Amino acid sequence: MLSVKNLKVMYGQISALKDVSFEVPEGKIVTLIGANGAGKTTTLRAVSGLEKPAGGTITFKGVNVGGMEAHKLVSLGISHVPEGRKIFPTLTVRENLELAAWTIKDKAEIKRRMEEVFHFFPRVAERVNQLGGTLSGGEQQMLAVGRAIVTGGELLLLDEPSMGLAPVLVDEIFDKIVAINKMGTTVLLVEQNAAEALEIADFAYVLETGYTTISGESSAVSCDPRVREAYLGV
Does pTM top 0.85 for this prediction? Predict the structure, then answer.
């Protein structure tokens, strides 16, 4: 579904991504793990059109989408839940979800997708008339993922969904990611909680200082001595 080859991204004179390559097969969960500054967020931003590649290719469903504008990529089927949630704090939960439906013309379909969000996240349903900024961190993350469900799309990009959450909420968020995947959505997950990410992913790639260094099925990557020492603490 998604193929990234030899991706390069520059921030001025600084090379953020030097040579990143990975594949995301349809229907699978693929995780990118690595330390802070490895290039994980930049990679997602390049895939979703928020950063312009300086080299390499990004192919989505056979179409070269590298450098395409972000709103066009949403229409093609890519949804991005950014690091830090980025909800609208002065809008209600319902208004946040309604804004996410900007590509959908059918009101019945919008209602169906919102009901799907409420099914996945009952707490979001309970707080539908609250301002986004009054939600807890975990509830805001649920809302951020919920917006992506409303937007729809075949590929969901998730950037650090467990950041700042209590352990019980981390487990819940990862359970929801698996459930969303089982409904047919392909997932590309960036996550510093390597143990949780490797547990739910089908395939994994390790990014180090702008390069892809280790790759394979997540079960194999999690057994790699370098990964165990650097990211799993064993």
Answer: yes
CB 83 within 8 Å of CB 162: no
**Domain 23-51+69-230 CATH class label:** alpha beta
**Alpha carbons 110 and 118: distance in angstroms, whole number:** 12
Strand order in the sheet with 203-208: 63-64, 55-60, 2-11, 14-24, 211-217, 203-208, 29-33, 186-190, 155-159, 78-81
Nearest 5°: the CA angle 41, 218, 184 is: 75
Q: Where do the domains of the chain lie?
A: 23-51+69-230
Three-class secondary structure of residue 131 per DSSP: strand
CB proximity list for 44: less than 8 A, separation 6 or greater: 32, 80, 82, 157, 159, 188, 190
How high is the pLDDT of residue 152?
86
pLDDT tier at 74, thresholds 50, 70, 90: very high
**Average pLDDT, integer, range 131-147:** 92
CA triple 8-217-167, angle to 5 deg = 90
Residue 92 has pLDDT above 80, yes or no: yes
Can you say how many angstroms the Cα of residue 145 is from the centroid of all Cα atoms in its chain? 9
pLDDT above 80: residue 88: yes
What's the confidence (pLDDT) of residue 234? 64
